[in-house]
Amino acid sequence: MVVQRHGRKGGAVAAAVGSLAAGLVATGCSGMGAAADDRPGGYDPAAAAAVRRAADVLARSGSSRTRTSLETATGGTRVTIRGVGAFDYGRRLGRIRVVLPKDASGTEEHQPVTELLAPGALYMKDRGAGVPPDKWVRVDTTGLADGNLVTGGATDPMSAAELLRGVRHVTYVGETKAREDGARVRHYRGTTDIARAAEAASPQARGALAAAAKGFSRDTVFFDAYLDDQGRLRKVRHRFTFSNDRGGKRGVNSTEVVSTTVLYAFGAAADVLLPDERDIYAGEIAVPEA
Question: What is the pTM of this model?
Fold first, then answer.
């Protein structure tokens, strides 16, 4: 199959990003049903206010290092894509090095992919699939069926925080410590609504979240969020339900995906320079049929 890099349909763009989470999402994930059904109860107004403010606080927090993981499970087999990088919250720009899992046979190693995250766009280098090694691939995230919440293999920190603006149910679980530096963090658990988050999102995030609200098979997202004493998001885990049916959003064939974003070392440099237009690959990308 050959697709254009600026394809607008969810299936086509997922194929264009195919070496990342698109293939992972297509595997199915029945083994995660129990976790997705662990529904939080109750509503704590103070907790809801703290969680909803997370995106605004993060936008004022300068920069930090970030660590990500995106996981699915099929039966007893788990597949995980991991990433590490840095993010500038004021500029809403990030750079993540994504490490892909081995093929199902466990024999083929994949070269890590460098991703640049920007409002409305995802840039990828070392993408493979016929893309020259010195070129970047640019994807319009407002055209992705999931708004790039999972397709790129990582949920960027600002999108993860913006998604919390749509919180519906939330409870305060208690205090714990961040593994990275021992900082005290408050643990909140609840559900958020993608469409509601899109309506409340900042202008930079609204387009991608609006696309996600149309693309996921279920608008409700379960989350665990950890905030430090300054209200900064230090860790967030989202459980998404993504449809595998190419014919429509509400099919019964769906996959649960768990995305975890960890933020640490606030103040660390996050120098992100977007590529020039001449460095962006303008050709077609060959991707095998799923």
Answer: 0.82
